[in-house]
């Protein structure tokens, strides 16, 4: 771990340059540019909100007097989910995406992960600002001061997603199925997270599946903050934290073994 | 370590593991028994480079040169041994500087320089100098994807050498640049060398190595087999190549190096010599010999054996045979005879190929026993400061001033 911190500091300028380039590279030759970041989640929320509240007549229990509550519930869950899933997805393909660079130059690998994560964070921050603004408009319960609870949750999501991303990226160099599997598994996990539905609509026997999914605790924490103006359920967040620590330990072993063969296989 | 060293390589080895499957690889990481084969690309290589030295690296394709460079620059990690470097390393390993083809040359340059660990202020300072040196005009502000390979090399060299490195590594890349740019590059390299930069140059152009380097190593099948004077290194390299050619000749079916014929009489071996020493390097105006051994599987009379010297483009330059020179050649069954053709080399610097043929004395299309195209290769070097240029040596060029009236 200390080596990791030293490298992080040593290559901070390169990490920053790489991040800037990734963001720039994503939107060069596109007219709407950064607007796409807002359009995509907005459309997604609009579609879900329409289908679930109009077609399936879904209502949030205990919030029937606030018409926008379901939309906020959705948005909060999606904000937590996209942060987690985007960091994982962007990081999983780090080595394969930058194969040309890695084979040609002694690139500090940590910078590649920092840039990929930074890109996801940047995208998510824009979404988060959108959620905050809409909560202030649509939800009379919501208060800005509750956002203080968001920081530790945010940190936990990044910790889990980042460590998992590094692990998957390393394995993906040798087993390219990983990057395909990740998108399938994330799709499944999305529906195993109470984002478009609430936990209590599920039959009792399936609820254990939801609790095994670490993303549920994150979505729940976001929904507590934005919909109910509550502090998160800290006990529920203990599980993702322990999971992250376990993954970090595994990454530490695997990466140190794999780094000698990594560039040769790319 | 001593003060004047830039690079120290100790017992360096690199091997690739070929696993029966990815599960076996993961087992191996955790120290469990695993099913894999180990291929050594480099073995037991030790080398120390001093400040201001210019080291040439020669070796056949696949000898391990590029692997060595990748290890020195830190792109890959060694399997055994250690590399200790003191100071900054700049490397031009491949043609393209390519980071993102959609970005302009300038953006790619900034990216590359920050990768080399320079700060924003330092980068801003050298950008005009890079633009000026690369001299690609408006292209500097256009996306990399519209660049020609020559422009990419210009930009890559200008960027890699924007700051004087302690060790400069160049792998072939400069061969793509045009002559005037190459000259400009070597001027800059010379300038840096005088300030203490060490140069590591990999090239198949042996004349370039002899001209630029003051020391050279030969790598053969992953081993450092020679370390010393560039001239001797090149000789040594040709000697190792000779073995490769002898084995390759039997398997190579390509048109550049093909063999055909009835085969009742065969050429069993051929080599070149200067002063009775086997060689593949001949100097201009040096006397040399072509030795050919031929063996008959069947009694053959009135044979003719000849050679043809061709250049890289396959153009016939000079040839002769036993019939032309009035030598009668007869072979009994299972008899082997050796012939020696001697001649003076009037070719200029370059690579040349020898083709051999045995056929009927009167008509070289009748009874072709063996025709071996480009069976042997050799290179010609010009020694010292030459008084001439070109492919063919016209003996004893001289010049004198005739009209004295103008004074």
Name the descriptors.
heterodimer, A: 266 residues, mainly alpha, 12 helices, B: alpha+beta, Rossmann fold, Coagulation Factor XIII, Chain A, domain 1, 8 helices, 20 strands, 36% strand
Please give a structural write-up.
The complex is a heterodimer of chains A (266) and B (407). With 266 residues, chain A is mostly helical. Chain A has helices at 2-10, 12-27, 35-55, 69-92, 94-97, 99-104, 109-138, 150-174, 177-191, 207-212, 214-226, 234-265. In chain A, α4 crosses α11. The longest helix of chain A has 32 residues, at 234-265. The two termini of chain A are 26 Å apart. With 407 residues, chain B is an alpha+beta fold. The longest helix of chain B has 22 residues, at 230-251. In chain B, strands 10, 13, 15, 16, 17, 19 and 20 form a seven-stranded mixed beta sheet that branches. Chain B has two domains: 51-238, 3-Layer(aba) Sandwich (Rossmann fold), CATH 3.40.50; 259-381, Distorted Sandwich (Coagulation Factor XIII, Chain A, domain 1). Chain B has helices spanning 22-29, 65-73, 105-115, 120-134, 149-160, 179-194, 206-212, 230-251, and strands spanning 5-19, 36-50, 54-58, 80-85, 89-92, 167-171, 198-202, 215-220, 223-228, 259-260, 265-274, 277-279, 281-283, 287-296, 300-311, 316-321, 329-331, 336-344, 350-360, 370-381. Chain B is globular and about 80 Å long. Helix content of chain B is 25%, strand content 36%. In chain B, α6 (179-194) links the parallel β6 and β7. The A-B interface holds A 13-14, 17-18, 21, 24-25, 28-29, 100-107, 174-175, 253-254, 257-261, 263-264 and B 16-17, 22, 25, 29-30, 70, 73-77, 79, 93-94, 98-100, 102-103, 107, 110-112, 114-115, 117, 119-120.
């Amino acid at each position: 771990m200390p080596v990791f911190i030293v490298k992080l500091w040593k290559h901070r300028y390169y990490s920053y340059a790489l991040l800037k380039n990734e963001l720039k590279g994503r939107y060069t030759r596109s007219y709407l540019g950064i607007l796409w970041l807002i359009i995509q989640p907005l459309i997604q929320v609009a579609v879900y909100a329409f289908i679930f509240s109009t077609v399936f007549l879904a209502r949030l229990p205990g919030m029937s007097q606030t018409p926008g509550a379901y939309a906020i519930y959705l948005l909060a869950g999606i904000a937590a989910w996209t942060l987690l899933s985007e960091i994982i997805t962007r990081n999983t393909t780090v080595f394969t995406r930058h194969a040309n660079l890695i084979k040609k130059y002694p690139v500090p690998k940590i910078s590649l992960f920092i840039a990929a994560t930074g890109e996801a964070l940047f995208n998510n921050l824009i979404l988060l600002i959108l959620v905050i603004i809409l909560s202030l408009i649509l939800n009379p319960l919501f208060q800005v001061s509750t956002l203080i609870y968001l920081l530790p949750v945010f940190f936990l999501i990044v910790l889990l997603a980042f460590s998992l991303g590094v692990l998957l990226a390393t394995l993906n160099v040798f087993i390219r199925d990983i990057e395909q599997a990740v998108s399938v598994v994330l799709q499944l996990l999305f529906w195993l997270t109470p984002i478009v539905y609430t936990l209590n609509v599920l039959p009792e026997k399936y609820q254990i599946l939801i609790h095994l999914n670490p993303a549920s605790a994150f979505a729940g924490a976001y929904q507590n903050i934005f919909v109910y103006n509550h502090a998160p359920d800290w006990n529920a967040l203990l599980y993702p934290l322990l999971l992250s620590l376990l993954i970090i330990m595994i990454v530490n072993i695997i990466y140190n073994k794999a780094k000698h063969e990594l560039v040769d296989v790319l | 370590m001593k003060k004047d060293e830039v690079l120290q390589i100790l017992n360096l080895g690199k091997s690739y593991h070929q696993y029966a499957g990815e599960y076996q690889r993961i087992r191996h990481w955790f120290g469990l028994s695993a099913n894999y084969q180990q291929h050594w690309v480099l073995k037991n290589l030790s080398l120390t480079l001093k400040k201001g030295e210019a080291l040439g690296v020669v070796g056949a394709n696949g000898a391990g040169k590029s692997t060595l460079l990748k290890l020195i620059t830190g792109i890959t990690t060694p399997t055994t041994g250690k590399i200790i470097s003191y100071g900054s390393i700049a490397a031009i390993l491949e043609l393209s500087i390519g980071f993102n083809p959609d970005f302009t040359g300038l953006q790619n340059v900034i990216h590359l320089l920050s990768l080399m660990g320079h700060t924003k202020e330092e980068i801003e300072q050298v950008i005009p100098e890079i633009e000026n040196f690369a001299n690609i005009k408006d292209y500097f502000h256009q996306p990399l994807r519209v660049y020609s390979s020559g422009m990419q090399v210009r930009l890559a060299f200008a960027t890699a050498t924007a700051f004087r490195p302690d060790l400069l590594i160049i792998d072939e890349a400069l061969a793509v640049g045009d002559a005037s740019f190459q000259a400009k590059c070597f001027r800059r390299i010379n300038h840096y060398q005088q300030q203490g930069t060490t140069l590591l140059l990999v090239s198949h152009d042996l004349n370039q190595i002899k001209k630029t380097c003051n020391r050279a190593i030969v790598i053969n099948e992953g081993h450092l087999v020679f370390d010393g004077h560039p001239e001797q290194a090149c000789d040594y390299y040709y000697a190792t190549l000779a073995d490769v050619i002898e084995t390759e000749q039997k398997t190579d079916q390509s048109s550049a190096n093909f063999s055909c014929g009835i085969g009742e009489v065969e050429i069993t071996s051929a080599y070149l010599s200067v002063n009775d020493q086997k060689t593949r390097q001949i100097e201009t105006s040096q006397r040399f010999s072509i030795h050919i051994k031929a063996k008959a599987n069947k009694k053959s009379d009135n044979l003719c054996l000849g050679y043809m010297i061709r250049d890289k483009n396959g153009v016939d330059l000079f040839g002769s045979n036993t019939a032309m020179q009035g030598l009668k050649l007869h072979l009994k069954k299972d008899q082997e005879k050796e012939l020696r053709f001697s001649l003076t080399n009037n070719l200029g610097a370059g690579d040349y190929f020898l083709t051999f043929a045995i056929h009927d004395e009167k008509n070289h299309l009748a009874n072709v026993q063996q025709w071996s195209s480009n069976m042997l290769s050799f290179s010609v070097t010009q020694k010292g400061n030459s008084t001439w240029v070109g492919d063919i040596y016209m003996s004893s060029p001289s010049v004198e001033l005739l009209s004295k009236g103008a004074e």
